[in-house]
Specification:
Length: 266
Amino acid sequence: MNKGLFRKFLPHLIAVVVFLLIAIIYCRPALQGSVLSQSDVTQWKGMSKGLFDYKATHGHFPLWSNTMFSGMPAYQIAMEADNPVSPGIFHTILTLGLPKPISFFFLACICFYIFSQILKVNPYIGIIGSVAYAYVTYNIGIIEAGHDTKMQSIAYMPAFIGSLILVYNRNYLWGGALTALFTCLLISMNHMQITYYTLIIAGFMTIAYAINWIRSGQVKHLAVSLGIVLVAGALGVLANAVTIFTTLEASKTTIRGGTEIADKNS
């Protein structure tokens, strides 16, 4: 291997090894047979048991559950989407297939490190920042509570923001590709609260960039950047169409999206 190329990638290799070692040491009980007692996960197992029993008998999940509330769509609890290419493939690659909670901390470190390198931060400073981002007390608390999808969404947040910055810095190809990828992965975690917060950050950041471009006469760059981001974002959304559109359909009959009674009285 070319020595110059090796020296260039050595800090990144060190970063991956450091993240992996810290996560394994910190979560060592997970490799010794111990399992986190997560209240939300325990509750989910209870509400989904009937669905898994149905699948064991019929070979597929039902679309309706009578065990929650007065009945609700079962695909909001447990569902398998028959996608030819699942976003989960890329999630497995980025987490190295590690068990939880090791994978949570490793993923958060990797995604923040990607963000730091897009900002051209010194790699070793980036390592420190990544570890700080992953092991902040709040993250540890939500993992203990069983908010797994929330933690994974938080992990993907900096990589998504960094991808947008790549586009805005005129790296259209890599920026567009990574924006599509991390939009896909962020949404696939199915934690819309964190996705919403992430989009708020992205929105204000984009407005700031746009104002600067307009003032400096970079209208073409503005149009190209927004076009790439919108197309990449649409691809990321459509990769999760099965989850998103079923949730959208269900939301129309919930207390947050309207009810049959309200519709009849309107």
